[in-house]
Design brief:
Number of helices: 15
Bound molecules: zinc ion
CATH class of the domain at 12-56 and 91-205 and 214-220: Alpha Beta
Strand content: 5-15%
Structural class: alpha/beta
Number of strands: 11
CATH topology of the domain at 12-56 and 91-205 and 214-220: Rossmann fold
């Protein structure tokens, strides 16, 4: 049966949220968004509408782990054992995490009885296998039990889900777009969990009268005839999908001026933002934003927006200070002189010879491996 979903492109007035979600489709390695806001502001509607603009994924028809046909070395045992795998292209799914999910249903189950009796290793994949390369959606993430969020965070960090029973373990890839929603009135998230969300957006009830009138019209039309309402937004959804695909292709070519990267680092040092992850997320997000606009180079507009998306939920000074706010980002950039230094492109080449540990003297420079080119 066809499930009708309110079209993503028909959502009105939640521009930051739409942008954050779209940037994650441009570069799925950004990893996800935390959506904060009061009830009835269309958080779930946006998430469930996302597959309509997401590029299709290629999978093996009979695979339960969504193995990518292109990543041969990562295939599950079943895909590896097949002579040929039939490849199908399909829409990305939103896999929703039920609040009362058990550890077994989340990570999968090893049939211990069978293992002990016959030695057969039978593994039933869980929700994390289903979510691989797709969207994992947690509504009210602040209400999920701690032990479930803890195992989830391990997987988010490593991209791999591991189940261990009776000295036997099963591993499979689990990389997904993590989208969580929460209503701050119902309790805050632990800082460790907050920090795992690369981006965050707070959405509020729209105050603009014209926008609210249009929301009424669109919801009325969708309820009356969902099929034709969806159809009327199909062209623009397909255009968005094409733009995302074009942006994906541009990603490796996008340049970023070194001065902008230094501005981000200076800001994070000045405001004592915890950890290094936020800076990495900001650069990744800004590059995706430039690509989405089909610009060859990241501009300060892209950086500013990326900072607002990546920093407004991050604690500072070891968790002692609250996150920065959007006006801190704006005023930081207003205060920067354009000609701070010559605008050369930031080089992503790392230096293999720069070994901090040498300063400790445990390793003499002569024992270092020869020159290795990072390229
Ligand atoms: Zn597979």
């Amino acid at each position: 049966m066809i499930k009708y979903r309110f079209p993503f492109m028909a959502i009105i007035g939640q521009d930051d949220l739409s942008l954050a979600l779209i940037l994650n489709l441009v570069n799925p390695r950004i990893g996800g968004v935390l959506i904060r806001g009061t009830k009835g502001t269309g958080k779930s509607t946006a998430v469930y509408g996302l597959p309509q603009i997401a590029p299709l994924i290629k999978v093996h028809e009979s695979c339960s782990y969504n193995c990518s046909p292109e990543e041969l070395d990562r295939w599950c045992p079943q895909c590896k054992s097949q002579q040929t795998n039939t490849i199908v292209e399909r829409e990305v799914e939103v896999v929703s995490l039920p609040m009362n999910i058990s550890e077994e249903n989340l990570s999968g189950r090893i049939d211990v009885e069978r293992l002990l009796k016959t030695g057969d290793k039978i593994f039933t994949p869980g929700l994390l296998a289903k979510a691989h390369r797709q969207i994992l959606y947690i509504d009210e993430v602040n209400l999920i039990p701690d032990h479930i969020t803890d195992s989830l965070l391990d997987v988010v960090a490593s991209g791999v889900s591991t189940v261990e029973r009776e000295g036997f373990s099963v591993e499979h890839d689990a990389r997904f777009l993590l989208i969580g929603t929460m209503n701050s009135e119902e309790g805050e998230l632990r800082p460790q969990i907050l920090d795992r969300f690369p981006l965050s957006v707070t959405i509020n009830t729209i105050r603009d009268v014209d926008d609210r009138l249009e929301i009424i019209r669109r919801n009325y039309a969708f309820e009356a005839d969902p099929a034709s309402f969806m159809e009327s937004f199909k062209d623009v959804s397909d255009m968005m999908k094409q733009t995302i695909l074009a942006a994906r292709e541009m990603l490796p070519e996008i340049k970023i001026p070194e001065s902008l990267v230094k501005n981000v680092v200076d800001f994070c040092v000045h405001y004592m933002v915890d950890g290094h992850r936020p800076e990495i997320v900001i650069i990744k997000t800004a590059i995706a934003y430039a690509a989405l606009e089909l610009k060859p180079e990241v501009e300060s507009k892209h950086i500013k927006m990326a900072m607002k998306l990546a920093l407004l939920h991050r604690t500072r000074d070891g968790g002692l200070k609250k996150a920065v706010n959007a006006s801190d980002v704006d005023s930081w950039f207003d205060g920067i002189k354009k000609d701070r230094e010559p605008d050369r492109t930031f080089s992503m080449d790392y230096d293999v010879q720069n070994l901090s540990i040498l300063k400790g003297g445990y390793l003499s420079p002569s024992k270092k491996s020869g020159k290795v080119s990072p390229n």
